[in-house]
């Protein structure tokens, strides 16, 4: 690296400053599951060839004005031994699934040191139910948003069918997550609605993997988008999970009131904050060139996202397809709203006039008034290798947010990962919540298959 690069400083963008503000200090935890064990030397070699050359991954954060939350990026030499952590593990441990989940959750208990570039990688060379090894990327959100980082992963990847070629990426900017709904009102207190201080508490991360072809079957049969499907699944799964919290039991845990009707209270206000991309999707070739030349290309990197709110109807339905139809109707209506653009412009103005601390306070209030965050990100469309190893799945999440629950949907080849991050005290049984989401999707899929009029003529791809 040239000395001029080391000495040069670049101001932190408004979006990056927001991600660093007190009470809104977000950090990404992304799990990459691999089909093979990790060759550490090869893995580091590939990191040096790609990720380490990215300007944001080779820069220190230099605080300029703590009160206003301003900082700059200063290039530095990266010592991979300080960023890649490889614990010595027993490959024959008794419960590898529990170990991996506990390890991931433990990383949410503290933030990254600013004495080095704000990222680290933990390599767990132990086989669990989903993969033969797991690599956990812990990245400060000020480095970039989810869409930027997924695009970067793809730019570092190669097709398994053609190791010299970059994977195929969608060039469509997903704008399905667009909504506007009463930001000032507070959601009803439920078993998943967090109170103040939740951003400081540890999170528990659970994931389930379903067939993306099955999701496409529902999508095509019902003439909806994948985003409509996963939003409907989210509403159905949350209804299923929350219904159990309103059932009455005796001291032995036996249900004493068997309700024929819906055990859920009527008119629950439960909304999801949605974070969506505002940047046109970058070409993978351009991102690869950016790492090769070790400089950022204008408009291709950073945090450029909007915040919107989606109201969810929490009710048990006899016909599971109603969840999908309602999701489509709501999204079709909300896509026409300009509310998300107004919120984005308002946040930019507040940031300019009053600084990141005040802007973070406004953003925090939006999240505190709502119950959860929902996102759906498109991943690689074929089998790929990342950093020299074949990839099985990607499961992203975050911590440091003022909510008790976040649900991510992430596609990878023919798989769709449901990744949940839940506050350990608020939601002590996150595996049950994840299972309820999966069961809800299976009910929807089976209802589609039973309706021969829907399936006739539809394709699964």
Automatic annotation (TrEMBL):
Main localisation: membrane
Domain O-acyltransferase WSD1-like N-terminal: 39-177
SUPFAM superfamilies reported in the protein's UniProt record: CoA-dependent acyltransferases (SSF52777)
Reaction catalyzed: a long chain fatty alcohol + a fatty acyl-CoA = a long-chain alcohol wax ester + CoA; an acyl-CoA + a 1,2-diacyl-sn-glycerol = a triacyl-sn-glycerol + CoA
Keywords: Acyltransferase, Endoplasmic reticulum, Transferase
Pathway: Glycerolipid metabolism; triacylglycerol biosynthesis; Lipid metabolism
Residue stretches making up the O-acyltransferase WSD1 C-terminal domain: 301-445
Highest taxon above the source species: Eukaryota
Record's bilayer topology term: Single-pass membrane protein
Cited InterPro entries: O-acyltransferase_WSD1-like, O-acyltransferase_WSD1_C, O-acyltransferase_WSD1_N
Subcellular compartments: Cell membrane; Endoplasmic reticulum membrane
A GO CC term attached to the entry: endoplasmic reticulum membrane
Acyltransferase is among the record's keywords: yes
Keyword tRNA-binding attributed: no
GO MF, any single term: long-chain-alcohol O-fatty-acyltransferase activity
Family the UniProt entry places it in: In the N-terminal section; belongs to the long-chain O-acyltransferase family.
Protein name (record): Diacylglycerol O-acyltransferase
Gene source species: Castilleja foliolosa
